[in-house]
Amino acid sequence: QVLLVESGGGLVEPGGSLRLSCVASGLIFSDYEMSWYRQVPGADRELVAFMSRYGGTVTYADSVLGRFTMSRVNAANTVNLQMNSLKTEDTAKYYCRATHFLRNEDVYWGQGTQVTVSS
User: Fold this and answer.
1) What's the CA dihedral at 31, 37, 41, 42 to 10 degrees?
2) Backbone phi, then psi, for 18, in 5-degree steps?
3) How far is CA 6 from the centre of its chain?
4) How confident is the prediction along the chain (119 residues), in pLDDT tens digits per residue?
5) CA-to-CA dists, residue 79 to 7, 86, 88, angstroms
6) Among 101, 116, 106, CA closest to 57
7) Is the N or the C terminus of the chain less surrounded, counting Cβ atoms within 10 Å?
8) pLDDT at position 15, please?
């Protein structure tokens, strides 16, 4: 059984930082490209950041470029999202997603972690 478990969300003031983590189990982690998405009620999930299997390719949404940094540690089956200079518009539920590098239909999602940016 594949599980993705996010952690690290919480309440932070504007300008603050949070570090999200996603730990995967039940899969060969290095076979999966990893992404972070976020979603607010009533809206579609938005891609925040993407990282290839060994970290050679990393892309970010324009809205977080320069403020968020994605990383992964394959030996620990973990992907992280360091979020700095947080804004109120970053408030959302954040999800990690694993996509097999060959089988695009082989996709797994975590349960999400809430990030609230408010003074």
Assistant:
1) -90
2) -145, 155
3) 8
4) 999 999 999 999 999 999 999 999 999 999 999 999 999 999 999 999 999 999 999 999 999 999 999 999 999 999 999 999 999 999 999 999 999 999 989 999 999 999 999 99
5) 11, 19, 24
6) 101
7) N
8) 98
Q: For residue 20, which amino acid is it?
A: L
Q: Which of 75, 119, 77, 118 is nearest to 96 (CA)?
A: 77
pLDDT confidence of residue 104: 85
**DSSP characters for 8-26?**
--EEE-TT--EEEEEEEES
Contact 33, 57 (CB under 8 A): no
Which residue, chain included where needed, has tokens 């539920």?
A: 93
